[in-house]
Structure formats: structure tokens, C-alpha cells
Amino acid sequence: MRQLTHTLSGSNSGTQRSLISLHYGVPGTGPKVVLQTALHADELPGMVVLHHLRARLQTLETQGQVLGEVVLIPTANPIGLDQHLLYNASGRFELNTGENFNRGYPDFAAIVGDQVAAQLNSDAEHNRRVIRQAMREYLSACQPTTELESLRVVLMHLAHDADVALDLHCDYEAAMHMYVEEPYLQQAQALWQHLGAQAVLWAKGAASSLCYDEALSGVWWRLAERFSDLPIPLACLSATVELRGQADVGGDWARRDAQAIEQYLVHCGALAGTASEPPPALCQPTPLAGSQSLEAPHAGVVDYQVTVGERVNPQDVIAWVIDPISDQRSAVRAEVPGVLYARHVARWATTGMNLGKIAGPTAFKTGPLLGP
Ligand SMILES: [Zn+2]
228 CA to middle of ligand 1, Å? Predict the structure, then answer.
């Protein structure tokens, strides 16, 4: 294993942060897989999953069983990990700018499209190399002025040539679920089955400011659409895996999730061995545009009637909201059938607060699907 230290530029005078990556196997000898966790720095279950995976990879590497390169990034956001406000961790947005740590990644298709146009040909492998080379050149030429920009460039450098890049997150309280771009659903199926995902939410270009996974997977389908007469492979399966809720850092789950990811690494050829048959799917993928966001109708105490992972039907009461002053007690109801895959951890709601999400089967939303 090689441990690399990536020093972030743009830090304050007299301070310096760095990002650590752990590299198993030999680059260029097989598939490259990047697994990173805690890009939202207060989302911790993935850290424990990588803790378990690390021990396995160490053993497998000494046995020569790592066929390509597996890169672990145990804490992908040293800036956010350092942010506390009044004794509470605050790792989703940079406190200085308010920017979401998982937005603002490069739209590589727009950036490198013109540059690669004259170099692409009828050989998919050649096209993969040309596009990755152009992405690398762009990243190498970047001169980030802030620590946050520097972090994004470092993370993209580590993953721009990955065949698989999984971004391990979690929600407030949640069932295991995953976000993936629609063109990659087939590639991702063994992953969500091994993980036992209870919801798989697909979209295609969901955010107006790209997430980490969208930057890495989107370049390929966007260029394939632009150069539709040429073979452009879907060369990077990148997905956001939501490892349940923020408090779900328990050892059994983490160990099981690490085993599931290890099975997927065998499945995609990054580890030696014969891939085991994944367990049956617990859900069918549903459009992110069909996900109902449950909103508090007014301020009050939230009394949930449904726990995460339960299936609900339209009109089911998901929660009561009780205003202690007006004495108003309002039902928050499901409008779509599906799994309640996430709910809030707070029990005091402000008006309009998102109390939970149901993975409905039919798209009904338009426009950007992910907030800032
Ligand atoms: Zn997150």
C-alpha cells in the first residue's frame, strides 16, 4: 500500500491541510476503483466501512489478489472535518462561502469536448484514453485560489481515470440507498444488490452545479451524445452511496457493507476471484424526479409514524406536526407509493422543512432535482 499526502493550496497564512489517499495494487494493471468517504464531513458511516475494507485490502494485496488499483480516501474533506459551530460538527457546507462540498465539480464534457473532437475515432479504447488525457491536462493546468477549489481539484485528479468511483455518504436517518445516473443503471445493479439498497434513485444531469459523481460519470454520456456516431464508452461508473443515517456507524453494518463492496470489487475485476451471485434486489430503481419531499406545513414538534425503510401508500400519515402555541396538529401524508428512504433527525420543524423522502415510481418533477 502506498500512502500519498496531497497538500491543499489556498490555506490561511500559517495553516496547511492535506488529504490522504491509500493506494493498493499497481496502477494500469487492471480496473481502477476509487472509494471516498465523508465528502460531507459529518457523514461518518463510510469511514468505518473503509476501516474494515482496509484490513482486507492489505491482506489481499500481499496475496497478489489486487488486480488493478484500489484507492481509498478515508476522509475526503479535511476542511469540513475541521468545522464546528457551537460544539456541533458542520460538514456539509463550507462555513466561509456557504458552498456545498458536493457541488461545483467540473463539467468535463463542456471543458474538453472541443479539444478532443478532432482526436476521437472509431476505437472506443482510444477514445477513452484521449478523453482521460484531456481531463488530466485540464486538471493539471488548474490553479485553484481557495482551499475548497484545491480540494475539488485534488479529488478529481484522484478519480478522473477511475473505472468505478463511489462516493460514500449518508442521510440524517435513512435506509441504505443510492443515487446513480440513468445510463449507468445496468453497471450499478450488482452493487446495489450486494449492498441491499432499499431505494435506487436515478437521474440524468440532476444538479445545475455538478456533484462529484455526476462530474465523473456525466462526461462519458454527455460526450457520447455529442459524438453520437463514434463509440464513447460509459467509462466511469460513479455513484453516491447513502450508508443509512448519520448515527449508523455500528460495527455489524459497516462490516457487512465492506463485504458487499469487496464482492463488487471482485465483480468488476479489481480483485481476483469469482464473483458471488448478488442477493436478490430489494427494490427497483426509481426516478429521482419521482421522489416526494415531505414538507412541514407549519412549525412544530414532529412525531413520525413511519420509520425509514418502510413502504407507504398515498394518504398514509408519515408524521404529525404539533404546534404547541396554536395547538394545531397536522398530518404530513404520502402522495406517492414507495419506500420512505430518509427522514430528518430533528424533531422541531420550521415551516416548509423537509421531513423525509419517498421513492415514488413515476417522475413528476422537472428542472434541477438537487438543491445547492
Ligand atoms: Zn452527503
Answer: 33
